[in-house]
From TrEMBL:
Domain Thioredoxin: 211-350
Protein name: TlpA family protein disulfide reductase
PANTHER family found in the cross-reference section: THIOL:DISULFIDE INTERCHANGE PROTEIN DSBE
Signal peptide: 1-17
InterPro entries: DUF4369 (IPR025380), Redoxin (IPR013740), Thioredoxin-like_sf (IPR036249), Thioredoxin_CS (IPR017937), Thioredoxin_domain (IPR013766), Thioredoxin_ResA/DsbE_sf (IPR050553)
Swiss-Prot/TrEMBL GO biological process terms: cytochrome complex assembly
Gene3D superfamilies: Glutaredoxin
Location in or out of the cell: Cell envelope
Origin: domain of life: Bacteria
Keywords in alphabetical order: Cytochrome c-type biogenesis, Disulfide bond, Redox-active center, Signal
Lineage, uppermost ranks: Bacteria, Pseudomonadati, Bacteroidota, Cytophagia, Cytophagales
């Protein structure tokens, strides 16, 4: 990791403004034949799309970008996507394909990356994510992990303040405190800061500001599954988990058995859960509640990601949760699975 940081520091920042011609040579495994499309959006918000034929399980693109930019490769029809960074040079993509029928009976062309080489920005991001995962797997406290990530991300941004890579890494850095993220943000170039509203960084900063540990959680008056007004703030509790989910969210549904078990175990000791759904269709919401055996309060405005709760907390992903103490202050967030089990066991020991 230190090697890539040194390389980043030595890379001339002026290169960020130079035209970047690229080629993409691709090899596909599987039986797919048809076309493949490369899509990306420039910092000017201009959307670009190039399409190539897959011949003998290979494809080829040539083009030019004014700056490194994230792009996706997609197959025909309904398709999963492979993300990559377009940058100057010869980029080689190896991927596997297969076709399956999803839960709604739709035919899906699945595209899954095996390797992507030749893009400096792609490697820069991959190396950072590899380092990031390593930090997350250590036994450090969350605050210590955040400090480590903060220092490394700040070094990367200081070396290349006008690179999209720094902004896009920051966009996903929910482990940071608001102060750490805001400092990194203000080390980005003016051009990158101007993109915050479109690249997700503004939402990250808002989410961190509104879910800072030690701050009071803001409740919203919603409707429960019977249509009665409720916020959850009125519920007595020693600790409360506010869980954001939706019926269409697979990871949310897979976490429900863990929540059911924890609720059964710790509710007598004062543990409460309030679930806030980002569903838009009431029948699907109610069906999921019944099928998953959720017996604690269920709230929703049925406005999905556009509702005031989702907007206030700038939710870009679910499942997401916050754990509150008896005063309604946030003491932890985005804790799931074994981590949540261990945390509740330490707080509510039998």
């Amino acid at each position: 990791m230190h090697r890539y940081l040194m390389f980043a520091i030595l890379l001339p920042v002026s290169l960020a403004a130079a035209p970047r011609p690229f080629t993409i040579s691709g090899e596909l495994q599987g039986r797919y034949s048809g076309t493949i499309t490369l899509r990306y959006t420039l910092n000017t918000q201009e959307s670009m799309a190039l399409t190539a034929s897959v011949e003998n399980k290979t494809f080829h693109f040539t083009g030019q970008v004014p700056h490194p930019v994230q792009a996706v490769l997609e197959l025909e029809g309904l398709s999963t996507a492979v993300w990559l960074y377009l940058d100057s040079g010869n980029i080689h993509v190896k991927a596997r394909t297969h076709t399956f029928v999803d839960g709604d009976g739709r035919l899906v062309n699945n595209l899954q990356a095996i390797s992507i080489t030749g893009s400096y920005s792609e490697k820069l991001q991959d190396d950072f994510f590899t380092f990031w995962r390593g930090v997350l797997e250590t036994d450090q406290t969350d605050s210590a992990k955040a400090e480590t990530l903060y220092r490394h991300m700040l070094a990367l941004v200081d070396a290349q303040p006008d690179s999209n890579v720094g902004s896009e890494l920051l966009r996903d850095a929910d482990l940071l405190t608001y102060a750490q993220a805001d400092t990194i943000f203000h080390h980005l170039s003016a051009g990158q800061r101007a993109l915050a509203g479109s690249n997700g960084v503004a939402k990250l900063l808002q989410r961190l500001a509104h879910t800072e540990r030690g701050s009071l959680f803001k409740f919203f008056m919603l409707a429960d599954k019977d249509g009665k007004p409720m916020s959850g703030e009125e519920l007595p509790h020693t600790y409360m988990l506010v869980d954001f989910w939706a019926s269409w969210c697979g990871p949310c549904r897979r976490e429900h058995p863990n929540l059911v078990a924890l609720y059964d175990k710790y509710h007598p000791a004062g543990f409460e859960i309030v679930s806030i759904s980002l569903d838009e269709e009431r029948p699907k919401w109610l069906s999921a509640i019944a099928n998953d055996g959720l017996t604690w309060p269920q709230l929703s405005d049925l406005k999905g990601m556009t509702g005031p709760v989702a907007q206030y907390y700038a939710l870009s992903f679910i499942p997401f949760n916050v754990l509150l103490d008896a005063r309604g202050r946030i003491i932890a967030k985005d804790v799931k699975g074994e981590k949540l089990q261990e945390l509740l066991a330490s707080l509510l020991s039998e």
